[in-house]
Amino acid sequence: MMSLNRYRLRHLEKKGSHGAKRSASLLKRPDRLIGVILIGNNLANNFAAALTTLIAIRLYGEESVFTASVLLTLAVLIFAEVTPKTIAALHPEKVAFPFSYLLKPLLSLLYPAVWVVNHISNSLAKLCGVNTSNVQAHEHLNPDELRTVVGEAGGLIPDDHQEMLLNILDLEKATVEDIMIPRNEVIGVNIEDDIASIIAQLEGAEYTRLPVYEGNINNVIGILHLRFTPRFLYSKETLTHDNILEHIISPYFVPESTPLHKQLIHFKNQKHNMALVVDEYGEIQGLITLADLLEEIVGDFTTNLADQSELEIKPAEDDWYIIDGGASIRDINRNLDWELPTDGPKTLNGLMMEYLENIPKGQISFMIQDYIFETVTISSTMIESAKVRLIPEEEEEQQ
To answer: Which residues contact 72 (CB under 8 A, 6 or more apart)?
Structure first.
């Protein structure tokens, strides 16, 4: 009964298995189940011991009691303990479901004795700080345990599905800031530009939605969907800024600390596909789309004109990689199967600057955890690129 998989038991219970329903009912109060089993078990063992002693004395005298006890112990261990319990542990459903027919009425029959035993036992357990009434709390899996269950599913779940399930569970570990397009890469329309420049920008746009702002990106006034642009691009002679403003929709802002799993729900509830990310001061830090969020679950599925990750991470000789300083640490870890720390800065430059605590004036080499960094290009404001290599385990042991 105790070896039953609780989640499989619930599944069988939902499918209408009577044995599963009876077993689940008994397991709701494991103290009572253990009580009735052990009462019967100890009664049988004690009765067998008394009967064996009585038979041994009558047949062979008092000096045979020790030999009879040893033989009874072996018989009980083999036939009543080890063998049946091993079989039951290996095939719990085949044993537990039929025996639930016996345990259910037996519990009703012996309930007064079970109640007394449980009352005394639970009182002693409470003195030891154990809450015997909170059974359900121990049956639920925390996120890390659930990840282990999914990861250990093996051939039961296709690899692609398994990876997606793990990615869904990992959404709560990341925030909008981790996957947003940073502010310096956001492409938008400055409504203060002349009409000819705006038309050229719209005609060559790579994206379907563009932020519209006044002067700088912090003054976003709306979002322009390019499905509206043919309506006024064909009449370029009469196109005005007002024509563009008529077709923009209100911008949607989200805090940079919003967890990804909550942002996915927000996109669904708010009926938005794109959001502008702001910090605690209301300054725009970047942009996130529904596609970016879904790619965290299913992997890259969009076709970009230039694969940003390939541009930012270039293999070099001897297992080195030349990586752009602005590359996301999450992208680096995902593409190279590395484990660079993600609990601090979000870019490679940020990680190196945090470790060095200044901008180096010349080329330097240093280590962060199991990774060697060598600066390649340094500007006055950041480390623009660096060579990075993971130290192999054999080399690490030699060091």
So the answer is: 48, 49, 52
Matching residue, tokens 């989640």: 7
What element of type H or E holds 213? strand 209-213
Q: What are the pLDDT digits (tens) for 33-48?
A: 888 889 988 999 999 9
User: Which residue's structure tokens are 């499905």?
Assistant: 227
pTM for the whole thing? 0.64
Q: Which of the 8 DSSP states describes residue 321? A: E
Nearest to 347 by CA among 355, 166, 253: 355
Closest CA to 163 of 340, 334, 347: 334
The residue among 253, 204, 255, 258 whose CA lies nearest residue 233 is 204
Residues in the chain: 399
Instruction: Read off the DSSP letter of residue 228.
Output: G
- In this structure, are residues 365 and 347 in contact, taking their beta carbons and an 8 Å threshold? no
| Residue 157, token pair as written in the block | 């779940």
Q: What is the pLDDT of residues 130-150, one digit of tens each?
A: 776 655 545 667 777 777 777
Cα dist from 235 to 205, 208, 230, 368, whole Å: 18, 20, 9, 58
